[in-house]
Amino acid sequence: MKPGFLSRNPSVLTFLAVLAIFTLAVTFLSEAYGAGLVSTSMVKTLGKTLTLCLIAIAMDLIWGYTGILSLGHFAFFGLGGYMVGMWLMYARTREIVLSSAGGALPMTPQELQDAIATQIFGVVGTSELPAVWSFAGSLPAQLALVVLVPGILAFVFGWFAFKSRVTGVYLSILTQAMTLALSLYLFQNDSGLRGNNGLSGLQNIPGLDAVGQDALSVWFLWASALALALGYLLANFVVSGKFGSVIRGIRDDEARVRFLGYSVENYKLFVFTLTAIIAAIAGALYYPQAGIINPAEIAPIASIYLAVWVAIGGRGRLYGAVIGAAFVSLVSTWFTGGRAPDVPLGFYTIKWVDWWSVLLGLSFVLVTLFAPKGIAGIVDWVQGLRPPKRGGTPLGPDDGSLQEKEALE
Amino acid sequence: MSLLEVSGISVTFDGFRAINNLSFSIGPAELRAIIGPNGAGKTTFMDIVTGKTRPDEGKVLWGEKSVNLLKMNEAQIAQAGVGRKFQRPTVFEDQSVAENLMMALKAARSPWKVLFWRPAKPDHFRVEALAKEVGLGDQLDRKSGELSHGQKQWLEIGMLLAQEPRLLLVDEPAAGMTLAEREQTTALLVELSKSHAVVVVEHDMEFVRRLDCRVTVLHEGSVLAEGSLDHVTSNPQVIEVYLGR
Lengths: 409, 245
Hints:
Chain A is mainly α. Helices cover 67% and strands 2% of the residues of chain A. Chain A has helices at 5-8, 10-29, 40-65, 73-100, 109-121, 139-163, 168-187, 213-240, 242-259, 264-290, 300-313, 318-336, 352-370, 377-383, 404-408, and strands at 199-200, 292-293, 343-344, 349-350. The two termini of chain A are 45 Å apart. In chain B, 37% of the residues lie in helices and 25% in strands. Chain B has ten helices and ten strands. The chains are: A mainly alpha, B alpha/beta. Chain A binds chain B through residues 238, 241-243, 245-246, 248-249, 252-253, 255-256, 258-264, 266-267, 270, 388, 390, 394, 396-397, 400-401, and chain B through 50, 52, 73-76, 78-79, 83-84, 86, 90, 92-95, 99, 102-104, 109-112, 114-115, 117-119, 145-151, 159, 163, 175-178.
């Protein structure tokens, strides 16, 4: 009698099928498990792309659905990466220290910790293990911190921002200031996270030395695909029911939502914190594939790119965000990777490494002006679901639902 | 025994005194019309009661327990049972009629509860019944942005009813309605006032006459006269305010 969840949400089924086929195809073409047509570095790029799709879903929830243009979500992404990176680096260094000390007397825990600290922090001229590394030896603790640190930061930030009813462009500026401040703080050596060196060697998973990067890259691809699938299902659950109605209502007319009895601030806080956690999980999966994280990753420009992806893909629908992130980041990798052919104009040669950002900026402007629904708008076009053009202001009671421009035509 | 008791409120915007020592009260089952020229403070009065504007002084007490509404925000006041219909129809145009009504339906309002809330059969029935009541029974799946101006007015009335408020603040309900629709609206408001407090702000004297209820005349932010329509329209001050310029 009641239609099932999937039949009510056909796009979810399509999305999951495409994702599964993609993941299997890459696996069977990979060097570790298949024909070897897709190189290990390509598998890593694809796995990273999936995590970028996940943070794009978070961005779509907060911007496309709730109407809050956050320009700071890469801060949460980066924090998630740092949290998992601390364990990776600590545990890996411990392995190295233990193996190089092989044969000698067993070290006391203090000696071991000092040796690890010297290894990790020698580069910033200290051998003390900072307090923020207290839990770095424990994987479960650091995984919990992946969720807790960005979650609490987002909650506290959102509490102050939303409760004082900062909205619109001011909120965007505030989020940007937050990510910039965090980035500048992490650039300092005494932040305890190795300053501008960042954390490195994250691609080596402690205890899995025997596995090899070619297999690990496929494992991470699977983990990223799983996280993306779960994130998509969660986001779809959030936007499909009355909660979705309320947040879209907040996007379109938040005062009206208040008069219906919904506490707009709490909803914004809820979505902001939830999306920060999703972003953090995406980051925690991204950086082990990237191998290195440094404060530049948290710079405001990253979060602005995120907004561009979602806008180009099509905000206000989940698959739009995914398409945008995948498409733009892969094309960006191609253009900036030096593989795109130069365009000789005789008097000037267009080198895409330099000109890519110009092209991206231009396409952003064009999409915003001429295709506000983004790439995902093609789906509507194919289905023939073009909404009527509604221009101008309502004409008033007598002309019914017509609006200015329609009545003129 | 009154449901809403407003006493001695004043509010100033940039030196302009929009509400000046205004007092007002309404019982739990009463219909009241508020009239007054432009700038008399009708909308500001509604803004104060619904929590949108904070008065500089005065008290707004609500219900049997005389809760102070001034300490509550818009959402809490709405949850306490104050519903408002705006002058211009403000429905969520991007969402269907059913979604608009479902959102307004009386239910828990906190994010967690709303997240896991799924409409049960009675909720669907209620939405259908409300849509029928406001003449949108066969438009449930349409985007409300596609509705005509009058239909949006009706949808907004439906959303107001769905909230099951105890006090309804209705701003110019008849604006943009046909004659037949006006009569329907009058009948609905009169019917509602048998069990609810209903405050109607209106310009149109003819409409107010049809409501046949107590009238409060506002002028320059305070109450100029109160009583039956015939009583207030024979008041020389009211005549001067309305006709004297």
